Amino acid sequence: MSETPPPPRLLDLPLGFDAEPVEKRIGLVILATDHTTEPDFARMVGGPDVGLYVARIAYANPTTPANLRAMQPDLARAAALLLPDERLDAICYSCTSASIVIGDEAIAAAIREGKPGVPVVTPTRAAVEALRAHGARRISILTPYTQETSASVAPYFEAHGFTVEALSCLGLDDDRRMARLDAATLREAAAAALAPGSDALFVSCTALRSAAVADEIERALGRPVVTSNLATAWACARLVGERPRSEARLADLPLPDPAAFA
């Protein structure tokens, strides 16, 4: 029979504290069904000096405009769960199609209701800045969505000054299936989606694992490639004074307009 363990002993030692556990802090508001954003940001942005803090938001497939719009009331609550009463340097809302349906400004307003005074990055706004950084004017777009959900993507980019040469989609309505598309499929779809006259290709959707192969697609196509997660990782990294870890051309470019997220 074991002896009674000793009670806890309070050590009478001077305790030293760092100013903050991590110097730079990025919050992520992601869908409950998201398989891809956290690994992508961990690979491209997170590190000893950059902490990533995640809140998940309720979401139900299929990926339709109505289901995407249904997330809006929960955005403020999700943002408020990111290090309450502590500083963040940026927050990324990681859903491209919902950013179009709800609107960048409405998303930023909702997130700042829960976490005031923080720059808010959406995939759509980050993609606009990334395409501008490349000097692109005429673009092609690839989405994994259905035709219904894809229909609003081209008008968004046209409204921001781009000419959309081609808009292609893969007809999927479940972001969990989108996350399972393999690299060979993504490369083939990108090649098929690029119109000859386009300056760059935008691959929409944070569920796709396209950021990991963006550099390969660029080499194959001879054109800049911007993906949703590559764009948001780049924007967030630049906002905190870092370079994202990616071989894609975008990684070396400065952020044209940091005030776009303020």
Give the ordered list of helices and strands: EHEHHEHHEHEHHEHHEHEH
Strand content: 15-25%
Overall, the morphology is globular
Distance between the termini: 64 Å
> Please, what is the average pLDDT?
97
Order of strands, widest sheet: 2-1-3-4
- Sequence stretches where pLDDT stays below 50 over 5 or more residues: none
User: What class would the helix/strand composition place it in?
Assistant: alpha/beta
Helix fraction bin = 25-40%
Strand segment tally = 8
Number of helices: 12
Radius of gyration: 20 Å
**Biggest sheet, open or closed, and with what strands and sense?**
4 strands, parallel
Explain the overall architecture.
With 262 residues, this protein is of the alpha/beta class. The protein contains twelve helices and eight strands. The strands form two sheets. It has a four-stranded parallel sheet, sandwiched between helices. It has a four-stranded parallel sheet with strand order 6-5-7-8, sandwiched between helices. Helix 1 (37-44) links the parallel strand 1 and strand 2. Helix 1 crosses helix 12 (228-239). The relative contact order is 0.16.
